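[SOLVED] Need 3D model of a two-part complex

Original post:
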Amino acid sequence: MKAYQELTKEELLTLKAELNAAYEDAKGKGLKLDMSRGKPAVNQLDMAMDFLDAVNSQSAMKAEDGMDVRNYGGLDGIPEAKKLMADILEVKPENVIVCGNASLTIMYDTVSRAMTHGILGNTPWCKLDHVKFLCPVPGYDRHFGITEHFGIEMINVPMTPEGPDMDLVEKLVSEDPAIKGIWCVPKYSNPQGYSYSDETVRRFAALTPAAPDFRIFWDNAYAIHHLYDDRQDQLLEILSECEKAGHPDMVFEFCSTSKVSFAGSGIAAIASSKANLDDMKKSMTIQTIGYDKINQLRHVRYFKDINGIREHMKKHAAIMRPKFEAVLKVLDEELGGLGIGSWTKPNGGYFISFDAMDGCAKAIVAKCKEAGVTLTGAGATFPYKKDPKDSNIRIAPSFPTPEEMAMATDLFVLCVKMVSVDKLLENK
Amino acid sequence: MKAYQELTKEELLTLKAELNAAYEDAKGKGLKLDMSRGKPAVNQLDMAMDFLDAVNSQSAMKAEDGMDVRNYGGLDGIPEAKKLMADILEVKPENVIVCGNASLTIMYDTVSRAMTHGILGNTPWCKLDHVKFLCPVPGYDRHFGITEHFGIEMINVPMTPEGPDMDLVEKLVSEDPAIKGIWCVPKYSNPQGYSYSDETVRRFAALTPAAPDFRIFWDNAYAIHHLYDDRQDQLLEILSECEKAGHPDMVFEFCSTSKVSFAGSGIAAIASSKANLDDMKKSMTIQTIGYDKINQLRHVRYFKDINGIREHMKKHAAIMRPKFEAVLKVLDEELGGLGIGSWTKPNGGYFISFDAMDGCAKAIVAKCKEAGVTLTGAGATFPYKKDPKDSNIRIAPSFPTPEEMAMATDLFVLCVKMVSVDKLLENK
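Solution:
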């Protein structure tokens, strides 16, 4: 296939007519497909139904430390749940607090607490004139939503296949004391599916921030969400790297079982240094008497341990893999060599990232929508929903079936072609 | 029995010797009893074990509106859970958001949000020099903990059997725009077990605050927690009273099922006007994708409806009543007519409030502790843990058995007598 850039105006016009006809056809099919959010599919949920029997009326209701999980108390989480979440993150249980149903809430609360109470004795951020966060882009819209909500200025940092541009991160963080944090999805990043290289993690650990209360917000959302048995990304464990580098307090790490057990009914955890956790607990103990310990117990009784979780995640992978492959097959076959788009091929996580020609993303998403395929809004992967190049589109293959994903991607590539042809014609 | 105030110095000294001997005896018994917190007892928890079977691997997992409760979404709560919580509060489902496992967390988050984002477009409280809350006293230590944590100045307002001193509330609220809220436990108040009279509720609804963002924090924690079938307090519904009085946005109401299903694994809710809820959701939608809908469904499937909850609460009452009665019997028999203490006789809730002679509460709690009976710390029922008279003690009869409660109260009255005698001797 010839790259579109090499086509003459006449060839482009002919192509445009063909594509338009195909698009009218496609619209006639009345598609109604959603690849906008990283939602588990129904068969992923069905697969875990016996999770609901793991704690029942016949169950012993004491935690390992003898605490009755049905009563008040246990701010930290029950010991066996701390162990389970620690094993997911490859940290020690004493560095973990198990919380409620969503890591997003822990992240929001962590920022909120920094606003009102500061971190480890530093000035509360709400008392400062400027608070800034670094945002590797493209990234996770809900991260950016939190910092935007609190009026924190967000600064884009380009992502690479090895992680954020660390030269830039090092420079900004060491120079500007208003920079208080950076949002990271270090493994199978949202939306690109990139995993940070060992060097990137070590450079993070070695950062020398101008702000004493600078923190890395390390959202390890996809720690165990591999797509393949034989192609799995490995991530260096950041807490111990930071400790080795003499910066033990520099990281807040987050994870949850939302995409392991049930979305919305999982358990979430934060991992950090003892000093950070103690600081945090001063507020937590005012905010709650304890999180849902029965649900913590349910997770431990069902999964047993990290090996149980790993086995369970293989079943998720078996469901997810064909969907990713369906998308990638269509992208390869239909767009390969055309020069009008590039995309990632992740080994795990929930997303594929697509980069269209500059200035095309919004139009592509709109065209898809018009024909019944909902994508994440163009721009959503950037702070303030502003993609400076208007090129990035996040594809979330998890919810539809593989067949639906293939259909949706067929439409998607058609829209990419149409919009690209129009873009190229502008300059002819 | 003669009042202690009428005893001569010699009589007091004789009494003191007898009491000391009894106390040494009591210490020898090696008691280890806790009446410090309003924790459900083990048999209350055992009673609800089949709650855990209400959702299991065979259950239909769709909510009434068709939403799959196992997946993301549903910020408000599932419709049937909204209805259930609305019925507990006697409000409309559209005025309710069902949240996570603890009303305490909703209250904390509500104050936190007011600090960082303000209420309905008003200045965020963290930008103000002075923010004050009224605190009916004695009251709930965890309420005061929240406002203290956020540096909000707390002003004591005396409680009466009809509710807070409304003359004072009206005066302060209408004069001082720095007063942004008042903590209320309007039914079976913590710790006195008082319920606000209709007149009190109407006067609340008719308040004309100097601050446009003044809110009544109406913690209806014991809405359905009666001790008797035939002696139940009734509380006027505040949302509709406020609406009638032309102040629809003046209340945030809270409740939970922590003392209905399981403490820590219940569901909590906030009720308020549509304007307030919409305002709140702007932050909530950043903080979470949704609360635990499976646990919401579990509640609805188990209790069915408000009648199911009422029947269940009768079983709780049957367990709680003998404990309250055991305490009250000892108090009546041992302290009646002595003039050294007064106490409340609630029809519901989780506490009995005891007022010792001024300056005696701390010493009584310490003496009890020394002999193996843990009470809520003296002063805990006041802001900053400072009881100006050092007289109030909260008794929490729920956790021990009735027999243990009788034993604990035997020791308690002994300590009250000892400390009172010492106090009276100071002035002889």
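Edit: The CA atoms of residues 14 and 345 of chain B lie 32 Å apart.
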